[in-house]
Specification:
4 domains, six-stranded antiparallel beta barrel
């Protein structure tokens, strides 16, 4: 990129302006767009001095974009380099205008409400000017349906139950007991969820999944670390527990639909196909963890909080509804790891023995000793306890040699990855295709090509090398705001570096 393009990319990347996602060097028809936001069809072009000689070409290019519904902003190099604040302000104002126009148009993928509900939730939701779409199950009739809400005692699931009840639905609460050591006093999921259910006057059920959770989630978590991987237990829990066992438990209790407090959205096509989309509040979006949902399961679940603009809105609604969990602190990231100390958890009771080994530079030079490979992850820089002329990062974990391999920053970039256990919400129509992907939860989607390898495996090639491809984490494929599917990363593919 030119200096001007680099400068403007620094203010566009990572959704810095009004939360809008921009892509750079995006192909369109016979052109390559400098920067584009597909959500609102905004193209930004940076013109150098040579463009004065190519007005005819630029005019044709702009006309093609406008005919396709794009709004085009053009800036000269010197504008960007000398007046970046003014450029940023103009982009921001244009975005607000385009967002306003978009809101006035019917959405191409509307979320039809459940039978009997209005466009908005009653009173409190209207105060926030938030619509909460809850698509019906395919084939359901006009009769009212019973909805089971996965209740943890937290504010998200409590508001979910309250809002659905406000709509006039028959709501029951289900709380999962996931650990044999689970207590039942104040502050625990079972106690707090029961308290909210009693406040709402709804049935409350407790289901014991502790044996299955121990085997499918905790044991898998430990085994992945033994293999030198960094697992993502939330993905596995959603796959096997929440949208497996819990969904079946809801059915056995007579509920046609399971509602959860996940921050994601769901839409329907006229033919009954379901789509999983990112949350309105992109900072709270949890779509990365739900790529294992199938069409069958997605049709039986709803996500009433997906359209919420912020977590503050959820808490404000909870206070207005008088829910006791309104100000309850959000739960820790991994529910079964006390104080988020995964090393202590892994070493407790000799789940994993802390065996010392070598820290080796990629060149083969011995640099130091480690206290167990499970204490390290790909891309880690801090806590290595070794000296080198430049910063070092964990490049690989060799469990066979009980070694941690380190290198400089360039060594942690990879041109692609390999994945297994690949599943699709919307299956691809070709064995090789272009899309975008995330390789960890907080990762921004990047352009890539996917090659299906059979047996639920695939190879992913990034358009630009990515840092810290980590075995055990998930690669999740997106098309704009829609989740297509994903898989578990088995390793980096550096052949294209």
């Amino acid at each position: 990129m030119t200096d001007a393009e680099q400068a403007i990319w620094q203010v566009l990347r990572n959704r810095q302006i009004s939360g809008m996602k921009f892509r750079r060097q995006h192909p369109f028809q016979d052109y390559i767009l400098d920067f584009v936001c597909l959500e609102i069809l905004l193209a930004i072009e940076i013109d150098g001095g040579q463009h004065a000689e190519h007005k005819k070409y630029d005019g044709k290019r702009s006309e093609a974009l406008r005919c396709s519904g794009f709004h085009v902003l053009r800036f000269w190099n010197n504008e960007v380099l000398q007046e970046i604040d003014a450029v940023k302000e103009k982009i921001w104002m244009t975005i607000q205008e385009l967002k306003s126009k978009k809101q006035q148009r019917p959405h191409p993928h509307p979320n039809p409400p459940l039978e009997g509900e209005g466009i908005h939730f009653a009173c409190t939701a209207e105060k926030c000017n938030i619509a909460h779409p809850n698509p019906p199950l395919e084939g359901e009739g006009a009769e009212s349906k019973k909805i089971a809400v996965a209740m943890s005692g937290g504010v998200d699931s409590s508001v979910t139950a309250a809002l659905l009840q406000q709509q006039g639905h028959e709501v029951i609460g289900i709380t999962m007991r996931l650990f044999l050591s689970d207590k039942t006093g104040p502050g625990t999921p079972v106690h707090d969820a029961a308290q909210v259910a009693a406040q709402l006057g709804i049935e409350h059920h407790v289901v014991d999944f502790s044996p299955q959770f121990g085997e499918l989630i905790i044991d898998d978590f430990i085994q992945e670390y033994r293999c030198g991987h960094t697992p993502n237990p939330c993905v596995q829990c959603n796959r096997f527990i929440k949208f497996g066992l819990l969904l079946e438990a809801a059915r056995q209790l007579g509920a046609d639909t399971l509602a959860t407090g996940h921050y994601v959205r769901k839409t329907w096509d006229s033919d009954g196909t379901c789509h999983l989309r990112t949350a309105r509040n992109i900072r709270k979006d949890q779509s990365y963890f739900l790529y294992t949902l199938t069409q069958e399961r997605l049709k039986r679940v709803i996500f009433p909080l997906g359209e919420m603009e912020s977590k503050d809105d959820v808490r404000r609604l909870a206070r207005e509804l008088g829910i006791t969990a309104a100000d309850k602190v959000d739960s820790q990231e991994v529910c079964f790891i006390p104080n988020d100390d995964y090393v202590a958890f892994l070493e407790q009771g000799h789940r994993i023995k802390a065996t010392a080994g070598d820290i080796i530079h990629v060149s083969g030079k011995l640099l130091g000793r480690h206290k167990g490979t499970h204490r390290y992850t790909i891309g880690q820089r801090k806590g290595l306890g070794i000296a080198w002329k430049r910063p070092l990062f964990v490049v690989a974990i060799d469990v066979q040699r009980n070694a941690v391999i380190v290198g400089e920053e360039t060594e942690i970039y990879a041109g692609g990855l390999l994945a297994e256990q690949v599943s699709w919400i919307i299956g691809p129509d070709a064995n090789e295709f272009a899309t975008t992907c995330k390789i960890r939860y907080r990762h921004q989607p990047v352009s890539c090509r996917v090659e299906l390898l059979g047996e639920n495996r695939c190879r992913v090639t990034f358009d630009e090398p990515q840092k810290s491809v980590t075995p055990g984490q998930s690669v999740v494929f997106y098309q704009d705001d829609e989740v297509l599917g994903g898989g578990r990363i088995t390793g980096a593919d550096k052949t294209d570096n």
